[in-house]
Each structure stands twice: as C-alpha cells, then as structure tokens.
Amino acid sequence: MSDTLAPVGIALFCWWFGTGLIFLLERAVRGRRRAAPAVIVAATALSMWGMAQSTTVATVAGAYLGFACSIGLWGALELSFLTGLVTGPRTAVACPRHCSGWRHFGHAVMALLYHELALAISALAVAAICWNQPNQTAAWTYLLLWVMRESAKLNLFLGVRNTAVELLPQRLAHLAAYFGKRRANALLPVSIGAAATIDALLIQQSGSGSGQDRATDLLLATLLSMAILEHIVLILPVRADLLWTWATRRNAHGGPVAGRGLADKRRDDTEPGALRSKTLATRSEEATHQPPLPPGAPA
To answer: By the 8 A CB rule, do 11 and 222 touch?
Structure first.
C-alpha cells in the first residue's frame, strides 16, 4: 500500500504546493527588478542539476527526485512568465473589437512567443539531460506538463466559462483579450477524453510494474489527473484559485478588477473616440459633484 500512497501523495503535494509557491514568489518579487531574475536563474540551475543527478539513479528515490526537479524547472518558467520577464513581442496591446479568426490567433501567439520558445528550448535541454539514461521520470514529467499546458492555452483561446482572468498580474492584464468567453468549446471534451485515456493506461501499467517504474507511472498518473481537473474547472462556476487562497491574496493593486470582463473593457478603450468620451464624462461628473459652498459665500 505504501508503494502506492507515497508517489500519489508526493505528486499531489508537488502540484498543490508548487502552484501556490509560484503565486507567492510572484508577489514577493513584484516591483523588484533584480530579485526576479535571480530567483528564476537559481531555481532553473538547481532543478537542472538535480535532474541530471536523478537520471542515473534507477530507484524509487531517483523517480521522486526527477519528478520534483522537473516541477521545479516548470515553476521557474512559469515565474518568468508571470513576472513579465519572458512573454512575447506583443505587450499591453489589446485587439480591436473586429479582430477574430487566424488574425486574432496570430496576435495571441505573438503575445506569448518568447515564453513558448523558452518552453521548447527547455524541453530540448531536458531531453538532452535524460537521453539514454536509466531514469526518464524528469523527461516524462516535463512532457506531460508541457502538453497539458498547451491544451489549456488553446481551450482558453477558443472559449470557456471560467477564464480565471482575475489571477493575471496587472502587467499581464492585456492577455485577457485573448481569452474566449463561452460555456465550452469543441476541443475541451477531446482534451479531457484523450488525457483521461492516457491516465487510465498509466494506472493500469503501474499495477504490473515495480520499483522505479511503478513510482514513475503513479507520479505521472496523479499529475495528469490534476491537469484533467484543471481542464474541468474551466467550465465550472468556481474560483480557479480555490485551493490556493493562502497564496493568491492580492493587495489593492495586485491584479485586474473582476467585473464585466477585462477583454471587453480594453477593446472598448481602443475604439475611436473612447478616450475623449471618457474624459468628457469625467469632467461632467466632476462638475456635477462640486463640494458645497460654505454658509454666506457668494454663489
């Protein structure tokens, strides 16, 4: 029983605590230009070093180490994105209201291009580290994280009910323009169904394995189950950070204001004359709400 509960528990903890730690670190380095790169470089170097050590250890402990180091590397990449250090050439520019289809998709790609390249380069580095080694846990973990994250991004672009736009830091608020808003999309059930099939195969395979192989299968199966849960949350009316409220508490200027929808607001602001209309409305409101005159003062 312990050879089942241990990898499942470790995977759940790494997923839960790792996600919360990324939120905490993003808040901690916010506004500190030197701190963010230092934390990211240190986490990347440590994760890569640990990953290299794990590949030659074909034991259960080696599987745990490779899994944890792959999660650490992924966390460093996520932090580089959330801090705005590695995003894309299209920054803080919302699409006009008429932008749609492949043109809109192209804009979304340009908003994330540098980060997507960083993910691909990191994948090559992980593959090189794990190539022809007896322990491939780190490589499979990174591949799973990468594929499921790309699936989530595509589903967000195509449209889901719960876009979790409130979790975007203010510096990335412009990305909300690329989050589609609808009950669901045709890709989502395909993504969930394909992932669930692979998850079932991993669980079945873990039953016939032992040692490192069994631990790796259960680590991957548990992580994939959490990724499936994250996809399901996309269509549920629940808070996306329900399990991480301890890490996502924001200050007054921590993120975009929830409400009508940041994407719609930013698109409206790009319409001709929008800024002039807002200025006139503000002046009118100021004129309407003048402070009262003191007693006896001339009107």
So the answer is: yes
Would you list the domain boundaries of the chain? 2-248+261-269
Q: Which of 200, 207, 182 is nearest to 263 (CA)?
A: 182
Distance (Å, rounded) from C-alpha 182 to C-alpha 196? 23
How many CB atoms lie under 10 A from the CB of residue 5?
Answer: 10
pTM for this prediction:
0.83
Give the model confidence (pLDDT) of 239-288 as tens digits.
888 889 988 875 434 444 333 334 444 444 444 444 444 444 444 444 44
Query: How many secondary structure helices (H) and strands (E) does the chain include?
Result: 10, 0
- Give the span between the Cα atoms of 108 and 105, in whole angstroms: 5
Nearest alpha-carbon partner for 157 in 174, 181, 173: 181
CA distances to 15, 117, 267 from 215, in Å: 16, 31, 49
Q: From 8, 6, 3, select the one nearest 224 (Cα to Cα).
A: 8
Is-contact 51 66, C-beta < 8 A?
A: yes
b or e along 75-103 (b: 16 or more beta carbons within 10 Å of the residue's beta carbon)?
bbbbbbbbbbbbbbebeeebbeeeeeeee
Residues 94 and 270 sit within 8 Å (Cβ to Cβ): yes
CB distance 162 to 237 below 8 Å: yes
